[in-house]
Every structure is written in structure tokens, then in C-alpha cells.
Specification:
Blueprint: H1 13-18, H2 25-35, E1 40-43, E2 48-55, H3 59-69, E3 78-83, E4 90-97, H4 105-111, H5 122-126, H6 129-139, E5 140-142, E6 153-155, H7 162-176, E7 180-185, E8 188-193, H8 198-205
Antiparallel strand pairs: 1-2, 2-4, 3-4, 5-6, 6-8, 7-8
Helix pairs in contact: 2-6
InterPro entries: Chloro/Mito_RNA_Process, Homing_endonucl, LAGLIDADG_dom
Organism: Smittium simulii
Domain Homing endonuclease LAGLIDADG: 28-199
Length: 227
Amino acid sequence: MKNKNILNSGFNYSEYRKNLIPLTPVQKEILIGLMLGDLNLQKTSKNYRIRFEQGLKHKDYIYHLYSIFKEYIINEPYKIVRKNKITNNLTTTFRLQSISHWEFKFLAELFLNPKKIVPKNLIRDHLTPRGFTYWFMDDGGKLDYSKNQGKGIVLNTQSFTEEEVLQMTIELNNKFNFKTWVGKNKSKYVIKISGSNFDQILKMMDPYILSSMRYKLPTPRKSEKKN
């Protein structure tokens, strides 16, 4: 479906792109958090565009992102159905893609070299509580899924190198006073955050986290019943 706010019979793509209002500081905060997650920044002939894809379970989340960046997006999120060639199971996702625009160049300057990287001091200088929340909604979850779970959380940073993940833990510890360490998931590196930081993290994310994404948060450890 087309974005009715910008498309009409006399729509001029070039003029529209030229007259777009620059990204706001809030939009940039969110984009930095998303780039630490699954956001895909693509180089076009002259500029850059962003692409985001989430499963059916996160449909509300991707429409939320659409509402934030809709000035830069002509098409609403669209459904993609894929068939697993081995199991024949169907998987449904929703994809969101922006127009190509120079406003996204700042992301390339921060993250591309030429592939996606996390340079030193990026978290220290650019990550905010809002950005951290979008990073968590995108790529975070419970550290412990056992019945008597703790309060720790994990950030799935498997696409980054061990050196980058280690640097991120150091900067998270210094900036937010977290207790984090590097863990492994199937030989890839992830960030684990101690349950001792849970109340602090919850307070920090509470103004920004979507109700539909709160299921990713740990619940308090269940106390043993006394006889």
C-alpha cells in the first residue's frame, strides 16, 4: 500500500526528496540503536536507504517504526512469505524500506567500512537510553529462559567481531554503569548484562519500550515456597 500522505496524481519523487525535512535528533537516536541491531543500510548510486525486516510476531513493532520514519518511506510495510525448501514450512515477515536519501549518510559514516562495523567510542558518544531501548527491542531478550529465570538480558551481537563486542561491553559499563561481559552463542559473540542491572535498565527503557515488546524482558526470579 502506498503512503497516501505523499502520493497523489502530481507526485514528483525528486522534488519530494529534495524538500524533505532533515531527520530529527530523536529519529537519529533510534537509527543508531537499530543499526546496532538488524537495520540494513544499503548504498544506492548516490545516497543510502534503510531496510528493516521483522517476523509476523513483531508486526506492531515494524508499523511503529513506519510511523516514525514514514516521511522517508513511500510504501507501507509489506508482507513476505517464504517457503522452507527442506521442511515446506511457511515463514511470514514484514519488510520496511525507505527511499534513497542523503540524510542517511551519517549512518554510513558511523557504521560502514565498507561492511557494517562498530567503531570505538560509538556507544560512548552516540548511544542514548532511547537508542539502547530500540537496540533491545530489535536484538535483545532474556538471558535465562529456564523456569526459575533470573533478571539478566542478552544483546544478540553475533554479526560483530569479538573485538567489537568486547569494546561495546566496556563502553556500556562505563556509560550506563552496567555489569556486562562477552558470551558465546553457537561460536558467535553476544553481550550479556547482569540481572543486578535489571531495575536500572527497566527504568531507563520504560518511557520508550512498546507494550508488544515487553515480553522480551525478564520477569523477577520466583522465590521458593516456604513450608
